[in-house]
Design a protein that fits this description.
This protein is an alpha+beta fold. It has helices at 16-21, 29-45, 70-73, 80-88, and strands at residues 53-58, 61-67.
């Protein structure tokens, strides 16, 4: 029997960090939604897996973000909200 997979290597696309860096603070719901919608839009424009993005905020700051990676990574669990939560817990 071939060896079983034992590791996953996950990363957000390279464009995500610069996009989020433009939003050092997100003090209210409208600003937060603009950030998330911008991520979703960019994910579509870059063929990243659809118009799906999520973010985790604390005290007006972005803690983590996620964009849909289901299609690019061929992994049905890699929804934007799942990635955002996983990265926030690191």
């Amino acid at each position: 029997m071939d060896s079983l997979p034992t590791h996953l290597n996950l990363a957000l696309p390279d464009w995500v960090a610069p996009h989020v860096a433009a939003w050092p603070e997100a003090p209210g719901d409208e600003v937060r939604m603009r950030l998330v919608l911008g991520l979703a839009r960019e994910n579509v424009e870059r063929d990243g897996g659809g118009p799906f993005a999520a973010a985790v905020f604390a005290e007006g700051r972005v803690i983590a973000v996620g964009v849909n990676r289901v299609l690019p990574e061929q992994n049905s669990l890699l929804h934007a909200e799942v990635l955002a939560i996983m990265l926030a817990e690191k």
